[in-house]
Amino acid sequence: MSAPTLSAERLTTAPGDHVCAFYRGEAERREILREFLAAGLAAGAPCLCIAGDADREWLAQTLGPDLALDSYPATYTHGGAFDREHLLSYWQAWGEAHGRGTRTASDMSWAEAAFGTPVLEEFMAYEAETTALARQLDATALCLYDLERLGRHVIIPALRAHPVVLVSGVLVRNPYCEAR
Questions:
Q1: Which of the residue ranges 58-72, 109-123, 160-174 would you say has the lowest mean pLDDT?
Q2: Is 155 exposed, middle or buried (0-12, 13-18, 19+ CB in 10 A)?
Q3: To the nearest whole number, what is the mean pLDDT of the chain?
Q4: What pLDDT digit, counting tens, does each position of 69-119 carry?
Q5: Domain ranges of the chain
Q6: Where would you tag: which of 68, 70, 79, 106 has the fewest CB atoms within 10 A of its CB?
Q7: pLDDT value at position 180?
Q8: Helices 152-161 & 119-137, crossing angle to 10 degrees?
C-alpha cells in the first residue's frame, strides 16, 4: 500500500489527523496551504489558517471569504509570549463552535527565535496535546515547519509530536510519534 501524495487536487488526510508538514521556502508553503485548505473548503469544512500578514492577504485573495484567518499575536503569542493554555483553549473553542470535520493550518515560522530557548519544550508539549485535541474534535490540523529555517533541535521534537508527516510531497503515518 502506497502513501497518499500531495497532488494538484488534494492533500489526503482524515478527521483527527495532526499533520507535520515539512517544506522549503515560501512557494512550497503556499502550495501546501492552498491545497489543504482548498480541499477542506470544497468539502464544506470550516477552515482556519493562522499565518503572517502576507500569507493571510494571499490566502484571502486565493481562497476567498469562507476561509477564517487569524494572526500569531491573537493566537500563539497572545499576551506577548507563547501561552500553551490560551492556545489550547482557543483551538477547543474554535472546534466546538464550528463542529466536527474542521481543518486548521498554522505555519510555525513565527517561533523561529523562540525555538532556540526553553520555550521549545513547552511548545512541543502543546503540539502533543494538539494531537489529542484534533482526535477529540474530529478536526484535521496541519502544522508547517520550514526546513530551511529550523534545525534538527526543532525537527526531531516535531516528528515526535505529530502522528502524520508530509515530507517531499509524501504523506505518511509517523512511526516516531510519541504523542498517542
A1: 109-123
A2: middle
A3: 87
A4: 999 999 998 888 888 999 999 999 999 999 999 999 999 888 877 777 788
A5: 18-173
A6: 79
A7: 64
A8: 30
Q: What angle do CA 61, 95, 158 make, to 5 degrees?
A: 80
CA distance linking residue 91 with residue 133, whole number of Å: 8
The residue among 174, 115, 103, 176 whose CA lies nearest residue 140 is 103
In a 3-state reduction of DSSP, which class is residue 10?
coil
The pLDDT of residue 123: 87
Three-state SS at 149: coil
d(CA 69, CA 47): 9
Residues 51/32, Cβ–Cβ less than 8 Å: no
CA dist 151 and 173 (Å) reads 22
**Model pLDDT, residue 4:** 35
Kindly state the average pLDDT of the residues 36-43.
Answer: 94
CATH number corresponding to 18-173: 3.40.50.300
Strand-strand pairing, 140-146 and 103-107: parallel
**Residues 14-31: what's their mean pLDDT?**
93
Write phi, then psi, for 60 (nearest 5 degrees): -60, -40
Q: Where are the beta strands (DSSP E) in 82-136?
A: 103-107
- Enter the pTM of the model: 0.89
